[in-house]
């Protein structure tokens, strides 16, 4: 070696040492080896050495210090410090030894404390592995792509790929560059560049050379190029040759068809209608050539529908691969729909308003539309057989609504389908008959509900039969559809339905249904259908059950009514409820009971047999077959109060007196509420009485405490029976019964003492006291009289009588004149005092005499002769005040007076004489009254006598007999002829008018009553005293037409005389005239004397008829009538006929001037007595002629002025020649009116003046006594009219 070369080598060595030194001085240490490769299960060592130079340079830094004993190894999973893993070689180096290592790829760090000295990479794996998935694909003879998956190995492995064509051992080999970027997938491309890809070679032999640190491997894999070549995607320059409603023909090019040789290609054609399965055909008609391929798809099922064509191709080898598919979408031509929608019975639903109806149908599937613009239409609509406008029905995609539905009519509807081409040939008919209220309420399924089964996504619909079980149900139809959001009675798609037998009560759909369905059911009868009924609720069987919220609705003394609602849960999924109630006697639940309620539709439960007035807690849960809800919150409620148990241990204390007893008892064991009081009941002497005391508050705490009550106001020596009740809001049963007797008390006085005196013996008897208050041990009778100086009343003798004796006979004591004697009797009870001395011991002691004992009380002489020795001995005990207490009653006195017998007889004689004188005076007064009444006698005029002889000619009121004026009949078959009078109160309604008609024929008292406006007749029916004629209610109705005409100015009651019924010819004999009445008072103010009726003048034929609203033309009009008896009433003569003013014709002559006022009021001709004398009747003279006629104007003016006082207007015919006979002239005279109900002298004067105008000579009857109605009737008949 030359010198130059040696120098160069030395320079290089020096440079290496310099570099190594610089590196060594920069690292804190190093590991040997830095990279480790090892097979799985082998061992390896790594040494770690500290660089002392590094640490010496940094020794001034305390942290930069490390010794060998601080060294250890670690990975990201664990640390190695143990002596089995770490061995120290020297002061700077340690060795880590790993044994039987597993497959890994880790970094091992040598650590000094927390600092890393240096790191080494460790790879543990296997020797090279074979390739399992090497494969190649040729792409339409353009290129080939091979790929394989690199086996997992942590050791670095290298792969070299090469191939030969034709034979395995070909001399020429081609190497391929592979891409490991996406390892473990390795891709190797064989392209046509550099002529590597040999497209016509059938077999390729690939060799894979694999090597790593622990070995090498070579692998040969053959590939068939023809089988692995994939044709290109078909459809190049694709075109449509022909298209119809059911077919499609396509054509396309395939340029490299010739490369596939004589074996050719295999095609795959798939045709799928939209959302339908692939149409299965064994082959499709096609035609292939080297230039083009043609495919015709015939007999396609749906017109106007979308299809998807999928087509691919492969070489005709068993293991060849398919090309990328051609996906081509097309649509067949459209045509009219082939059918209408499907519909069934009961597919209609009546809306709640019952004015609209919706019916549903099963929609056509989209593939049945057969073209665009598909919809449904109503082709014909008839109501009760008459064509109607189809536009009245709103049509949607799955239903239609009749807007103006008549539920009582037949609706016949045809529904068809239509698209852009035309309508369907056929239409579906739906007939909806009349629907009654009974159909909607009783002929529909009940309680419809459904359950969702999540396991197979199906629904089960359940229902109950209609209430009307008499109708013949043929079957049921179940409907279901997709729901609209939040609407349970409408569908969001097609309606589906299925019929089930009439015995079915549930229906389960097929699986894979939607998560939510609307379901309904209809009942199909023989001749009609009631329509759909939608379900009430539905729920998942596995749904969580909500927490219940029960309430306690009502509480009684022994029951609680618990109510709840399950609106949030459909009951159909429930199995029942658990109700737990607990008694809370100490404020906490105890004594709990759980009730299982199996009725899933229950809404309430009554808990029974509870303790009254006790707190109970209630909680509930619901459960199904798979789950249960949480218990509800506890509800605490108290039962109502009830009757308590009876009071206990009722006793009577020993301190019973004659008026009071003390009772004691204990409170009831069971209060059952708040004991408010105690009510006691005690019986005695067939009587019952009560007492009541309030309860104390401490009794609620201590029910063993005795309750005391002093029962007072008792009767002495009486048996009592007592029991007590405790009272809350209700009374308990009675306590135990106790009996006691009150002690002896003060008796009442003896009763009814009778003393019988004779000259020698006085006998005395009496009755015992009504209230003995004891046994009545003895009686004491005292005889009391004057003392020796006859001035002081004192006791003389005291008789002691046994109790059984109520009779005493004693000598009659001497009686001094003008002195008093008295017997006094009293009853005595003896009460034994409570001491230790018995009666036997008392008798053994020295006993004083009875006289000695009684002398202490008074100074009377004691008489014990009526007592036996035994009774006297007992009396001595009674009078011993230390042994007995005596209760004495008040005295029953009986007095005697001693007097001179001669003087007594004188007094008796005077009394008898005075009595005789008084009786004689009374008899004389009665006799005088009788004589006075007997002077009244009745002499009937001849006219009356003739009328009585001819009752059939009178008519009117003669019991219905025919007569000249039979129209006045009708008041009863008992009516007889006579003057008819009735009473009308001008200020009283007709229905309340008094009916005392006895004034027309009654007694003298009745007339006096009427004289003072008496209304004693009341409102009842009135009877005639003489004729027994009853005034019926029909008469009152007739009087209602007369009442408005009564003069309201009368101020009192008034009367009217009505026609009797005489011949109308007599009544019409003279014209009607009106006369002004004389003005003046009646000083007499009483009845009309018969003597003043002697010269009763002839009156006009209408003088006393009632006022009428119709004009009278010479004939008396029928008027209301009623039987009349008695005297002449005041208004009879007062109510002279007068008419209201009428308008006169223009040709009426001027009326005459009225007479002077002096002539209009003549002085009264009668005397000032109280009655009208017969002799005074001749004084009634007719008035001057100028008073008989008044002008129409004056009458009209006078009527207007006196309208308020006029009773009525009566028609009258004018008698003057100046006015025609058919013109009525009226005047309203002012008449003084009395208010006592009878005729006055002034009124008789008016009657006399009116009657004198047409007076005719008649035979005047001789009238004696008072004027009776018969007299007036006869007088009127003789004068030719009826009063």
From TrEMBL:
Signal peptide boundaries: 1-24
Stretches with biased composition (Pro residues): 1152-1166
Record keywords: Signal
Record domain Fibronectin type-III: where: 234-335, 546-642, 646-745, 746-848
GO-annotated cellular components: membrane
Keyword Transferase among record annotations: no
A Pfam family recorded for this sequence: fn3
InterPro entries per record: FN3_dom, FN3_sf, Ig-like_fold, RTP_Phos/Ushers
Disordered as annotated region, ranges: 1138-1170
PROSITE patterns per the UniProt record, alphabetical: FN3 (PS50853)
Tagged with keyword Repeat: no
CDD domains tied to this protein: FN3
PANTHER family xrefs: CYTOKINE RECEPTOR
This protein's name: Fibronectin type-III domain-containing protein
Organism this protein belongs to: Drosophila willistoni
Gene from which this protein is expressed: Dwil\GK16477
